[in-house]
Each structure stands twice: as C-alpha cells, then as structure tokens.
Amino acid sequence: MKKLEFIFICLFAIAITACSSDDNGDQPGQTGGDHSYTFTITGPGVNGETFTATVPNQEIYNFYTPIPNSSYMGAYFSLSNGTETIAGNFLKDNNNIRPLGDNSGNNIEDSQLNIIFSHQGQVYTLESISGNCSSERFEVGTEGSTASFKISFTGVFTGGITGTNDPEEYQVTGTVDTKFYQD
C-alpha cells in the first residue's frame, strides 16, 4: 500500500510540475545548470567502486511535495546517465533531512534511495535500509513544487545482482546535486 501511495504522490507531483513551464526563470539560487551524482559502493562483488556522472538539466525528474499525514516535505528525484540510476526521496522535517531508511511500514518516515548500476558485466539493484544524510543546499522553488538540493549520504543498502533472491548488505556513500529545471 505504501508503495502505491508513493507512486501516486510521484505521478501527481509530476503532473502538477509538468504544467508549469511559464515559471522557470524566477527560481531562487541554483537555477539551471547540470545535475550530478557520485557514489562509492563497497560490498559483495564490488570493492570501493565509485560512480560519477553529470546529467543535463532537462533530463531529470525532480519535485517537492508535502507527505500526506505527516509534517514532512519530500524532494523526489531520479537521475540517470544510461548506465547508472540513483532515485528516491529526501524528506525534510523543519530544517533537517531525515535519515535513510527502508520505509517498509505504512508511513513514509525516512529518506529513501535506490541505486541501479553495472559492474563487471552484472547489473546491481540496491535499496537503502539505514544511514545519514546532510544537506549543503536545499531550496524550494517559488511555486513550491520543485527543489534544488545538494545532499550527501552514507548508509547501509541491501540488494545485489538484479534477479537474485538473496539480498546482501553494501556500504554506500555519495552526493546528489540537483538544480532547478530550466528550459
């Protein structure tokens, strides 16, 4: 049920922001510019491998929305360079970014990250289960439906080679840097 609520929130926010092409020029702070990510993974089959990419400004899904039945606001995003993808949500509670968690309950209470990457001919899928986040920048757009942020994280993720049924633990550290969308 929680996954369906998450998908509904994502689709609703994308629909709202997709209709607002006339307000791109009045965002505060980090308007335009390319997005980037870097993450380092250590675990079974992957020994300290670092993945870094720059993603053109127009090639991102990014929105900011209140989380139903909570005091949290969520910045949802998806960044991909075609080989790796990092996606998820960073939850903001007042001026603090919520820690990483697995959000396996009925309520969304923690930030959540999912990572897909290729390593030595295998595709891996990882999901955060615990960890910390720190924000260097977190700005909300003037319309309140987009965000520009730079957040670093370190945590324990579970997963492994895509299609296997025995998830293992991985240590992941990284940074996600998104800017406001600009036509």
Task: Briefly summarize what is shown.
Helix content is 9%, strand content 54%.
How far the N terminus sits from the C terminus, by CA atoms, comes to 35 Å
| Domain module tally | 1
Estimate the mean pLDDT confidence: 81
Rg, Å, rounded:
16 Å
Percentage of residues assigned to helices = under 10%
Largest sheet: 11 strands, antiparallel
Strand content is over 45%
Outline the low-pLDDT stretches.
1-30
Secondary structure category: mainly beta
By DSSP, the count of extended strands is: 11
String of helices and strands? HEEEEEEEEEEE
User: What is the count of DSSP helices, taking H or I runs of 4+ residues?
Assistant: 1
| Dominant shape | globular
General description of the model:
The structure is a single chain. The longest helix has 17 residues, at 2-18. With 183 residues, the protein is mainly β. The chain has 1 helix and 11 strands, in the order H-E-E-E-E-E-E-E-E-E-E-E. Strands 1, 2, 3, 4, 5, 6, 7, 8, 9, 10 and 11 form an 11-stranded antiparallel beta sheet that branches. It has one domain.
